[in-house]
Every structure is written in C-alpha cells, then in structure tokens.
Amino acid sequence: MEKIRITDSMEITKVMIGVERLGLEKTQKECFAFIDHYLEVGGNCIDTARLYNAGETDRVLGEWFRQSGKRDKVILCTKGSHNDPSGRSRLSKEEIVGDMDAALRDLRLEYSDIHLLHRDDVSLPVSEIMPVLDSLVKSGKTRAVGVSNWTASRIVEANRFARENGLSPLVASQINYSLAVTTPAATGDLTHITMNSVEYGWYRETQFPVMAYSSKARGYFIKMAAGEPITRPGVLRYYDNFPENHRRFDRICRLSRELGVSVSALCVAYVLCDGLNCAALLTVSKLSQMEDCFAGHDLHLTPEQLNYLNNG
C-alpha cells in the first residue's frame, strides 16, 4: 500500500483506520479480527482518542496490543484534549499531559507514535501549547505531535514558534475533508475545521501531511446511492442542506457507473488523488466496507475526473 511521509523516520499508509466504535457493538474477538485483517492487507496506521467510548476504545485496543504482540507493526495515532461537554477547551498543561498519560495507561503502552490535540482554542497563544507538546516528545511519551481541527494559519504560527525556540514541530493535521462540502456552522460545532479553498490551497502548496477524517462524508453519498434513507440527524445537518452536494451526488453516481466501481471507493479515491499529501482516515464496521476502502486506494482518478466531480 502507498504511504505518505510524516517525519524522516515515520511513514503511514494512505488508508488509516479509526477505531472509534471499538468495543461498542462487537465482541472482543471480532474487534481483534478486524484489526488483524487491516494489518494483513497492508495497512499500518490506527487512530484512537480519549473521547471515544469514554476510554473503552483505548482499553480494547490496549488488550489487542497485549495479546497480539504486534506493537511494532502499527503506527499508532492517539488524540487528547477534546473540549469538555460544556464546550470548554482543555488545553492546559495538566489536561494535555493528563490525557496522554491516561491513553498510555489504558493502551498498556510506553509511547504513541503521533499524538494529536483533538481541538484548538484560538484564544490561547501557541507559546502556551507548543512547549507542552514538546515535553511529550522529549519525555518519550510520543514520537511526534500534531493537531486535529486546527486552521492552517494556526499550524503555521505554531511551527514558527517551535522553530524559533527549538521545540518539536507539528507534523500532521486531521481535518474534515471529503467530496461532500460542509461548514463548521452546518456541523453545529464551530471548533470543527472543514476543508475550504483557503485550507486546501495551503495544504496543496506546502504538502503538509493531512489525515482526512469523515472522508466518506459519514456515508452520505453511499446511503443515497443505495437508496437507503438517511436517518442520522447529524448527517443530514452536515451535508443535505447544500445543493452542491446533490449535484456532486449525481456526478459521483455517474462516474461510479462509468468506471464500474462503488461510490464508497470513489469517495476514498477522491481525497487520495486530489493533489494533497493525504491519508484517508476511515471508520468502518464491516470487513466488506474495509475492502471497499482499499479499492479506493487502488483507484487513481485523472485530473479530468477530479474536475468533473468538483465542478461538473
């Protein structure tokens, strides 16, 4: 499987698996088989977060690490410091370090490979945040640090401060990115950062590593193509109020028929072929869905096909 470079000593496969629902619906045996299959077919990057399932996701994943002995086969991406339920940011030194320590405890590991801040608080100067992240690297708790839901301008500001002060830089960014357009207002969470022309332009020019979450638009196009009703209010709120998404749905269905590939595979191929240094971060619940994701990895869209999906 193709990879993108995160640091000089770290590369991740272009299909990442998010284990957000680990332990919610499947038995431990089923969860373990799911992770094993992902590795067997060539994947190497697993994404988790303290927010997921009140820490149970980390505990299930930690038990898999203990039983499998496959720590050296995985690039592990952890996330912490999500806002609390009231919306208050959790980016103090105590909260950043506390979430890192709690993750390692539940994962039964000495370190993660990449640790990301799950949210930003633009009222806090980067001079308060970056030294704390640097301490996680210097103490050996993580090999590298990055962010989720930060704007490009904040990443630039943070890395300028890190460079001027000899600190560990941010090396990767998770951002809401798919063929379906949305906005933070539409998601109902203004701390979400969604791909737009400004963000896209910066990522394309700098080739800063992107981990595209919601890269299948929460199944929006896939369910519509299958003729299934979209019952999750969040999915409708995110995507359905934008007429452009209805036009993009028509185009992705037409291209799906022409190429003889699934809409799901096309969603994955879109983010991997759109000119960025990008990995698709995917959350799937069935092995068949995982196979569709890998089909998208192998599908190389032409500039003309990408332009058609974007503009018609």
Automatic annotation (TrEMBL):
Domain NADP-dependent oxidoreductase residue range list: 16-310
Gene Ontology cellular component annotations, sorted alphabetically: cytosol
Top-level taxon of the source organism: Bacteria
CDD domains cross-referenced by the UniProt entry: AKR_AKR10A1_2 (cd19082)
Transmembrane segments: none
Keywords: Oxidoreductase
Gene Ontology terms for molecular function: oxidoreductase activity
Protein's recorded name: Aldo/keto reductase
